[in-house]
Amino acid sequence: MNDLSPQALSLHRRAIVCDGHCDTILDLQERGRSLGRRSADGHIDLPRLLEGGVTAQVFALFIQDKYLPEMALRHCLDLLDRFYLEVEGNAQYVLPATQAAHIHQAKAEGKVAAVLAIEGAEPLRGELALLRLFYRLGVRLITLTWSRRNELADGLGAARRESGLTERGLAVVHEMNRLGMLVDVSHMAPAGVRDVLSACRAPVIASHSNAFALRDHPRNLTDEQARGIAESGGLICVTLVPTFIAPTVAEANLERLVDHVEHLLRVAGEEHVGLGSDYDGFGFNDPAFQFNDLPDVSYLPRLTEAMLRRGLSEQVVEKVLGQNFLRVFAEVVG
Length: 334
Known about the structure:
Distance between the termini: 35 Å
Radius of gyration: 18 Å
Structural class: alpha/beta
CATH architecture: Alpha-Beta Barrel
Strand content: 5-15%
CATH class: Alpha Beta
């Protein structure tokens, strides 16, 4: 990172940096990588997380279509087991985070706090007992839908996108509020986002979504949705997926990503914007689909440089890098 200004490097190193979403556990399972060893594949491993100055990383457990519906729970448990094997095998560098104090501890010890999430609620089967069991196993965030329909609501790719929360979905949201789990609306159809914002009694998060006003992709949030999340006290985490940043991969760059950050700061406010890379959830080592300005997590300090260069204050940059995520995590999870 020799090209970084001393100001950017100093700020990034002292900041608490939190990434609200990655698909690395599935990538490790599929390709046989190890979290503890630097790899030429994928976007994230512990050496690169530490180089990138990441304090807390949310690791999502994502269930592929081929496991639905019967094997969703089993496959989720396999991924959960892989998560804990990786954490236990690399305890000198990573610690599981089930409360905000663990994120502070990771920063103090120079480690990475690993927050556990489920992307798409199919493993719950709509059952509150399974939700409670996953909470006891360390899950602290659930993306209620992926792009498909499940027992809770419609995702953006469902044929009948006007469907909001089902009765089971409403019950799950209320139980997540009671337990202290982050409710994530990324990937949800608009009616589901509306219902969550109406029903949720705690701050709501969009773990990896950008601004629809700048890039009219269905996975991005409208200004109305962004304001609703902010009014809940929640957080919109800007993502690095190139086609969520710009119409084509070739047009996606750091400057356009910071455009999304600035727009969401104007619409939602400086307390309600964070980061959610979606690393290891896009690209799959195909150069045609990579975000070349930030090719893996070790390059995150470049984003700090770009935000400062745009004229954002150090205070606002620190909020976007991780303070806002930590605030919401502490308020909801404890």
